[in-house]
Amino acid sequence: MLSERRLQVLRAIVQDYVGTEEPVGSKALTERHNLGVSPATVRNDMAALEDEGFIAQPHTSAGRIPTDKGYRLFVDKLAGVKPMTGPERRAIQNFLDGAVDLDDVVARTVRLLAQLTRQVAVVQYPSLTRSTVRHVELLSLAPARVMLVLITDTGRVEQRMVDCPAPFGETSLADLRARLNSRVAGRRFTDVPRLVEDLPEAFEAEDRGTVSTVLSTLLETLVEDNEERLMIGGTANLTRFAHDFPLTIRPVLEALEEQVVLLKLLGEAGDSGMTVKIGHENAYEGLNSTSVVSVGYGSGGEAVAKLGVVGPTRMDYPGTMGAVRAVARYVGQILAES
Amino acid sequence: MLSERRLQVLRAIVQDYVGTEEPVGSKALTERHNLGVSPATVRNDMAALEDEGFIAQPHTSAGRIPTDKGYRLFVDKLAGVKPMTGPERRAIQNFLDGAVDLDDVVARTVRLLAQLTRQVAVVQYPSLTRSTVRHVELLSLAPARVMLVLITDTGRVEQRMVDCPAPFGETSLADLRARLNSRVAGRRFTDVPRLVEDLPEAFEAEDRGTVSTVLSTLLETLVEDNEERLMIGGTANLTRFAHDFPLTIRPVLEALEEQVVLLKLLGEAGDSGMTVKIGHENAYEGLNSTSVVSVGYGSGGEAVAKLGVVGPTRMDYPGTMGAVRAVARYVGQILAES
DNA sequence: TCCTGGCACTCTGTGCGTGCGAGTGCCAGC
DNA sequence: GCTGGCACTCGCACGCACAGAGTGCCAGGA
To answer: Which residues form the Heat-inducible transcription repressor HrcA C-terminal domain (chains A, B) (predicted)?
Structure first.
């Protein structure tokens, strides 16, 4: 087990490295932090920390930089979450309060998060699977063509065209609309298949084909084509780490374009509480030199989606975690109100 | 006026520079293109081209690179549009044909364009102003709360919440829905305000306030809040120009994040035909070292939105223009079918 | 009049050697 | 177990010379 002072040394190294972006040596460390010991002592501690794999030197006789393992220890044991200041909180709230619809909420959240953390922000749209149905609308566009509009409790709207096997009258349509809504409105998506199972039986034989088609499209929308969308922003912040360019930035941009990768990434994060994935802890290779801080957010107690930021492993973890947590909290409130 | 051969020299310089990304000298030019003259002659021509401002040397006694003016001449007079090959056309069509809804069409288009041109692709959603109304749906979510759903001919769906000044019965709602659709369905957005002007008069006094509120929300959606959305992709391609990094890439990423900037950019492009903006021709400073190739696309003869790519001034103009044109054409077809 | 070969000149990029400074590891002493 | 001291190791910036590519100009030839 590491002594208390060695942990302090590690903390100091992480803080200095995050601040200066340069390997930090024993002398600089004693000057900037009053550890109460001499550089020589710190050197011994550093050697021990290096043996344990928490720090490393880029070259012999350069300063030390934290390893992924070092950051991990820092995040788990040495750093708290830095709460937002009052003005920051108010700014967040003001900024989010102006949103007019769900798209706008997500867009504003992305911008906000990118600005607060000065990193790349990722916000997942409220997921369909965990949402409930607010309303299902059916519109007759042509005798045998129906538009299905699904509205969720989080304000998300999905629409699909349905080509019916047979012409479908307005009255039948109204009937289906009414029956459908009385069954599924307010219910969770996962329950819908069970709830509508026997619905075709309530209709005349000639309409059953159409009803089935509509229902299967609905189920598709709910489950199969349950595309999880997300929005990203603040990619320009990537250029702030102009050292390792473009070796570092390239794969990150590629990863960000691959929504599948990001969704998987967010999916792997724990369902409750904040998750920090550091460097190689990220399964996707292109993100091996980045850290991902993510947290679930939702309108009620339960998380309906996640948001977070992607930045270099050398990031201000306490500040970033604080910003992510605060934003998630306010977004949850906004969604609950709408 | 420049002689025929000097134009050929300029063309050769542009082509070589685009290919090699390095300043091109007189000797290399004569070796790679059979101009039928000696390097010394080419040198004279180059001196003349430099006097005219079409090319420049980065340093004394380095090769020449085209200036913005040089590219302009190249695009206007020396280069055609390189048509897509048969297999490419089929690939485009196959790729776009799989789209299930408008979002998907746009998303696929962005990916396709980014892959074809290996540059940053920008696709504007079909604009609301130039579209026609397919259907307006009103849903009662609570006694005094209505959801307004607007469906356009291009498949775009917009929804808004309306808080009514007074409770609004189902029958009144159905009445309004019917009247509204009979007036505006199939009409252009720009005509809608005129068409619904006197609609409140047809209702009982107690409902007029609500009807007015709904209508003004509709008009807002159509006009005022006519947010022009767009989707971008292929930003990872920016890293292919790793020279001038990050000085160049930074402002470009920032510009791409500012949808307002991009929309303005596309808006400035000509309404019909393909527009190429080269370097400083772009009003936005951050894009001074990039070129923007854009073209309108639409379901019928008329363009409803634009798409294009953003790349370095040193780009393969004929190829890029060919890809942009082809994609726009196929997207138009897809939209017309749906 | 226009093209060509030749020549001197100008720069940039690169490789090499050197010196400096930051940082380390180790050791003896307190 | 902490400290000061000391020798050592690198990386990096600097200076310098050199090769190579490219140019401009000029005189000669079609």
So the answer is: 103-321
Interface test with A, best of B135, B227, B257 (most A CBs within 10 A): B257
pLDDT along chain B (338 residues), means of 10: 87 94 91 88 94 91 92 94 95 89 89 96 85 84 83 79 86 89 88 89 88 90 70 91 68 90 88 90 92 89 87 95 96 83
Compute the Cα dihedral for A31, A36, A38, A42 and give only its sign.
negative
Q: Which of B69, B55, B92, B83 is nearest to B318 (CA)?
A: B83
CA-wise closest residue to B284 among B309, B265, B260: B265
Tell me the residues of B at the A interface, defined by beta carbons under 8 Å apart.
100-101, 134-135, 137, 139, 141, 147, 149, 151, 157, 159-161, 225, 233-236, 238-239, 242, 245-246, 249-250, 253-254, 256-257, 338
The 10 Å Cβ neighbour count of residue A167 is: 14
Among B220, B185, B186, B182, which residue's Cα sits nearest to residue B199?
B182
